[in-house]
Amino acid sequence: MTVQETLPTSELYSTLQRYLDQRRLLSEVSRRIATSAGLAETLPHILNGICLATGAVSARAVMRENGGTISFASGSAGGKFEAADGPIFNYGQNQLSPVDILDISTPPSDLDLSELTGAVSSILILPLQAQKMQVGILWVAFEHAHQMAQDERDFVELLALQATIAITNARTFEEAKSGREQLAAILASVADAIIMVDKQRKIRVFNPAAEALFQVTAKTAVGQPFKNIIKSETLLKLVYPDEQNDGAENIVEYVAPDGRIFAPHVSEVIGENGNTDGWLLAVRDVSRFKRLNENMSTFLHTVSHDLRSPLTAAKGYLDMLPMVGEVNDKQETMMGKIVTSIQDMTNLVEKVLDAGRLDPMMGTYQLRRESIDPSDVISKVVSTLSSAAQKKQINLRSRSASNIPIMYLDEMMIERALQNLVENAIKYTPENGEVTVEVEMKNDTLIFAVTDNGLGIALEDQQRLFERGERVRRKEHKGIRGSGLGLFIVRNVAQQHGGDARVQSEEGKGSRFEILIPLTDENLRGAGD
Asked: For the whole model, what pTM was predicted?
C-alpha cells in the first residue's frame, strides 16, 4: 500500500508543504544565528514560526536582563499577554522539562494565570536550558484547547532549542564585546607599551603607548612578525629566546633612541586549555626611577663619606690623647665610651650604605665575586667579634662541616651579613650564654647559621623580621640599640646570591638564623680557579 492510497492527495500535499516550510524556517533561523544576528531579529522569527506551525495566538520568550526580565513576542495577540510573563517565567525557570497546561482554569498551585482568563484556553511552557543552566523560558498560548501531535511538538521543541542557542550566543557575544571594550580601554589608557604576539610571534595587540614608543601604527604592526616591526636586539632576545636563555633573563633594560630607559618584561599568555597561546611584552618607562636611584646612590655615598671622615678623625685624636699627657682612670673610661660610640656610629653608617646599595627596589650594587672558603669566612667573623662576646662572658665558637666546597661569592658582603647575625646574637643573648657560627651543606645548598640560646622571638614577630627598619619591641630589649637594617641586609645579600634567609626561634629558648646559598653554576663558577 502506498502513501497516496493512505492519505488524500490534498492532505499529502499539505503535509509535504508543512515539512518544507519547517525546513525553510529552521534553515533561516540557523543562518541568522550563524551570522550573529541580534536577538531582536532572531527570536521574533522563531516565535512567528511557532505560531504559524501550531496555530497559536501568541508565542513569547522571556529571559533575565539587568536585574529584571526582557520579553520577545509574536502572534495575533501582540503584546496583549505581557502581564503574564512574570508569573510564567518564575514558574518555568524551576522546571526541567516542557509543561502542558491544557486548561488554564486549573493551573498548578504555584502558577497564577489569572491574566490569561477568558483570552486563551491552554498554554505550553518550555524552559530554555544550556549546559544545565536556565537562560529563559518560551511559552505558547492557544485560544482553544490544543493537544499537539508528536511531530508538531518535536518541531516546537527544536525551535525552542534554536532559541536557546540564539540567547546563549548573544550573551556570549555581549560578554566578549564588553570584555574587548574594557581591554581596549585599559590598553589605551595604560602608560606601558603593550605588545602581544601569538605562537608564531605575529603581533596581535599593539597599544597606543607602543605606537608612540616605536613610531609604528597598530594598523601597520598587527599581523606582522614581531621582528619585522621591532628592531631592538634586547627586545628580540626576550620574544625570541634562544635555547640557552629560554627567556629566563628577563631583568634587562631597553634604551630608546631618545635616551629614555625602559624595563621590559615578557610573560606567557595561557589559554583556557592550559597551553601557551602567545606572549605579552610590557615595556615600562623607568627613566625617572633610574634617576632617583642614581641620585640616592650618590647621596648615600656622599653622606657616608662625609660622616666617615669626622668619625675617623675623632678616633685618631682619641688614640693620640695619651701621647700628649697622662690619662687618669676616669678619663680613660670616658674615652672608652667615646670610642664605643664612634664605632657604633661607623657601623650605622656602613649599614645605611649597605641597605641602600642592596635594596632591590633602588640598589645598584653589583656582586664582586671571588673564590672563597666559607670556613675561613666564619672563622674571620668569630675572630672579629670575639672581644664583644667576651665582654658579656658569651661563649662564641665556630663549627664547619668537612664537605664545604670552595665557592664563588662576594666575600665582603657575606662577611658583613654574618657579622650582622653574630652581632645581633651577642646583643640579645644574656651574659654567660652561647653563640655558635657554623657552615654546612644540605640538599645542594650551602648554609651559614648563627645559633644562640638568647631571648628568642615570638612567631608573630618572625614574619616581618627581615623587612627594612623592623625591630622586635619587648621590655627585655630596653637599652639595646639597633637600626633595624641588619636583617634586611642579611636577606638581600642572600638573595643577591640567588638564595634566601630564614629564622627558627622560640621564646625563651633562643634563635637560629640561616643564610642559604644554592650550589648553582654562578655560585661555583671560577671557584676552582
From this structure: 0.46
